[in-house]
Amino acid sequence: MFRVCISSGSRALAQRPPAATATAPLHTSAVCHSVAKVRKANSLRARKANIAHTGARVAEAEAHRPSVILGTRPGDEAKWDRCDLARVLVDETALRSSTDMVPARLPIGTVALPPQFAYGVDAPERQLLFEALPNAATGMARSGVAHKAVQDGKSEDWAAVAAQEKVELLKANLLAKALDLRNANAAGIAFENRRRIIREFSTPENPFNPGLTEVQVALLTYRIRNLWTHLTTFKRDVGNRRALRQLVHQRAKLLKYLKGVSLARYDTILERLALEPDSVEGELVI
């Protein structure tokens, strides 16, 4: 009987679960959750820093990106004033600032000529209008007086010749005032600017070649700048914004074609028009 009790007690002790001791493993779920939380916070902080850094780089690039309309970088607008296109255009402010004429000594007398002529009057036309034609008129008057004197058998009446010279001098002064560029309206000044651009950007072999690619690009740049000045003044003119975009993309197409034909001509025309390569290449967002 005693043996049976002892064996039953031994089995009961063997089946009893062991008591928790100090050497038992700890529960680590709270520690793992805390570590994951720290890692997530660090990752979020690094992501925000990367986004801020990328935004700063994009903003800096945009601040130094050239204008797709004007072609110059911010703060470098003086490059336009030094280029060939700006040099040949009519400065309307300086043109309207004075009404003085330039006296010129001609065979018929002193004629007050304007500082700038309109309607495409260059040196050959000035020589024809103010020298050749008046001289021809006075020469015809002298011949008429001499012929009449021979027919009548009288002395030559040089008073008629002097009167004709005065008339020709008066006509030359009136014509000079009529041909003054300061009398032209906006269309007249635009015509003079286009004429100057074609002459400036044509080749020596063909001094007036409006179909040359460089001439077409220069004319488009002139139109783009005029339209941009208009839109900055009249901000509600929405209709002309589409025209501005069309002109900008048309210029970019011509420059892309010119770059494929001759890289040297492409670089030269960009320099002469004060255009940065980044303003005419790639995607143009206006």
Largest sheet: 2 strands, antiparallel
How large, in whole angstroms, is the Cα Rg?
A: 44 Å
- Shape designation: rod-shaped
Q: Please give the CATH class of the largest domain.
A: Mainly Alpha
Strand composition percent: under 5%
Spell out the helices and strands N to C.
HHHHHEEHHHHHH
Structural class: mainly alpha
Q: CATH homologous superfamily of the largest domain - what is it?
A: S15/NS1, RNA-binding
Main β-sheet, spatial strand arrangement: 1-2
CATH topology (fold) name of the largest domain: Helix Hairpins
- What average pLDDT do the residues reach? 84
* Number of E strands: 2
Task: Determine the number of helices (DSSP H or I, runs of at least 4 residues).
Answer: 11
Residues in helix, %: 55-70%
Q: Note the gap between the termini.
A: 106 Å
Please tell me the total number of domains: 2
Low-confidence stretches: none
- CATH architecture tag of the largest domain: Orthogonal Bundle
List keywords for this structure.
single chain, 286 residues, mainly alpha, Helix Hairpins, 2 domains, two-stranded antiparallel sheet, 11 helices, 2 strands
Describe, in plain words, how this protein is organized in 3D.
- The protein is mostly helical and 286 residues long.
- It has two domains: 66-97 and 184-286, Helix Hairpins, CATH 1.10.287.10; 102-179, no CATH class.
- It contains eleven helices and two strands.
- It has a two-stranded antiparallel ribbon with strand order 1-2.
- α9 (213-233) runs antiparallel to α10.
- The model has no long low-confidence stretch (mean pLDDT 84).
- Keywords: Ribonucleoprotein, Ribosomal protein.
- GO terms for molecular function: structural constituent of ribosome.
- InterPro entries: Ribosomal_uS15, Ribosomal_uS15_bac-type, uS15_NS1_RNA-bd_sf.
- Belongs to the universal ribosomal protein uS15 family.
